[in-house]
Amino acid sequence: MIHLTLIGIGTGNPEHVTLAAVRALNQADLILLPRKGEAKSDLVDLRRLLCRDLLEASSRTRVVEFDLPRREARADYLGAVDEWHGAIAGVWAELMATRLPRGGRVGMLIWGDPSLYDSSLRIAQRLGDKGQAVEIRVEPGITSLQALTAAHRIPLNALAEPVLITTGRRLRERGWPCDAESVAVMLDSGGAFQALSPEGLSIWWGAYLGMDKQCLIDGPLVDVAATILERRATLRERHGWIMDVYLLRRM
């Protein structure tokens, strides 16, 4: 039996890692770190830094890196993602069987929190299909939405109003959700808000939240949309990757 703990590590600031997450790291027999290619080396570098700084000298935890399978780009997005998750589960199962043939505790460091637009839980649930008996636990982490609202010093919701959390793809395809006053947008490949009429909307945007390269822009969408697009393109070219999230609200 493998005891797998998905450990939320927040959005880039090592000080955001909880005490429970530190305990889970030090109790693990094996920590698996995914590599996502040279362009996103910052992501594995941060995980390496966390392991270096948070693992106790007496810890017997082994840290093993692996190359994450690539997702095929095709029109059938959900089908491509499903196959990609299956491939990742296969890699996880092989590493666990090879490195811990008698079972043990495995830790996975999850960017943000495993509950919010992260597929690690779905992938972990497929390990049984790969012949790996597993018990799953989660140590929650700070989400990008928490980091965004904290950085801008704003509440996530308008007074007594709900918030809808969606993706850039959905915002482009379906427009503004009719019953929402506030819409949080994640996993946007860039500028999905351009699908909306900017009049009467405010935006709070952030990239690299919690990291030393953090960038924030806010204001009426009609005034700052072009600035956000330009800054996003510049930052992506400079760093080779970008993670950003934003909150839209009716004024």
From TrEMBL:
Organism this protein belongs to: Billgrantia antri
Keywords for this protein: Cobalamin biosynthesis, Methyltransferase, S-adenosyl-L-methionine, Transferase
Pathway: Cofactor biosynthesis; adenosylcobalamin biosynthesis
Protein name: Precorrin-6A synthase (Deacetylating)
Annotated GO biological process: methylation
Domain Tetrapyrrole methylase positions: 4-222
Matching InterPro entries: 4pyrrol_Mease, 4pyrrol_Methylase_sf, 4pyrrole_Mease_sub1, 4pyrrole_Mease_sub2, CobF
EC number: 2.1.1.152
Pfam families per UniProt: TP_methylase (PF00590)
UniProt lineage: Bacteria, Pseudomonadati, Pseudomonadota, Gammaproteobacteria, Oceanospirillales
GO molecular function: precorrin-6A synthase (deacetylating) activity
Residue ranges that the Swiss-Prot or TrEMBL entry lists as coiled coil: none
Top-rank lineage group of the source organism: Bacteria
